[in-house]
Amino acid sequence: MVVVADENRAPVSVIGLGMMGAALAGAYLKAGHRTTVWNRSAGKADALVEQGATRAGSIADAVAASDILVVCVVDYDALYAILEPVKESLSGKVLVNLTSGLPEDARGAAKWADKLGAEYLDGYIMTVPPAVGLPQTLLFYGGSQATFEAHESTLKVLGGNSVFLGPDAGTAALYDLGLLGILWASLTSALHAYALVGSENIPAAALAPYAEAWITHVVLPSVKGAAQAVDAGEYATSISTAALNAVGLKKMVEASKAQGIRPDLMVPIQKFLEKRVADGHGDEALASMFEVIKNPE
């Protein structure tokens, strides 16, 4: 279906049409923005053109077509490789960079854009492509507050829960990495649990409902409480100590080996707890592992 553009909405050029970039362009089309698309492999624009997007014949054409440039490419090297040849055309443009990287990558790109006279936002999409454009979808932004506020309605087309974190372009990358770490650790821990019960031919689906309840009623409150403890630097507990959990992690590692599955995921946690106990803090809460994590030896 071809979507007719609303002339009252800002034209947008989307640069980079991988799975996420295509979803971004699709969201703008659906919202009625005149959307120009460009990708090094031109064929990736075909489906979007059928929906009403304009295919840019070159990156120069994509930059010229809109004042708002949304870039979603594999990394910052790709960003520079694509835009350096047309850098003289970026003055006065709004560059919304949704490319994943490190905080220093974002800060470097912000300085680069500033020298070229472009307004810059570094953003992170905290969802999967099918959820782009939903009211609850979270995006983090850092960089120019004036730019964010001036174009907030256009940015929120990609996710209704778009949050500006401050003028440091690198802050959004830290939030992104922090939440991804929680995702990766949580998912792999669940997979470890499925492997553990699966070693006795128990299907993962049998454990999953209890995992959901456990996460909701035990893990999430613990995560929230840990944030308060970390910020206060206070780890007193009447619930569960580091020493008690060190014993539990030792048993977890032994049980994993005995069941014929890899204990590797649990070993670092065991070591964090044993270190905390060895340093004389065995009576403190699990959250006190923070002090080990933030001070690597």
Secondary-structure topology with pairs:
Layout: E1 12-15, H1 19-30, E2 35-38, H2 46-50, E3 54-55, H3 59-65, E4 68-71, H4 76-83, E5 94-97, H5 103-115, E6 119-125, E7 138-143, H6 145-150, H7 152-155, E8 161-164, H8 171-198, H9 204-232, H10 242-258, H11 267-278, H12 290-293
Parallel strand pairs: 1-2, 1-4, 2-3, 4-5, 5-6, 7-8
Antiparallel strand pairs: 6-7
The number of helical runs is 12
Biggest sheet overview: 8 strands, mixed
Work out the helicity level: 40-55%
Number of strands: 8
Order of helices and strands: EHEHEHEHEHEEHHEHHHHH
| Domain unit count | 2
Classify the secondary structure makeup into a structural class.
Answer: alpha/beta
What is CATH's topology name of the largest domain? Rossmann fold
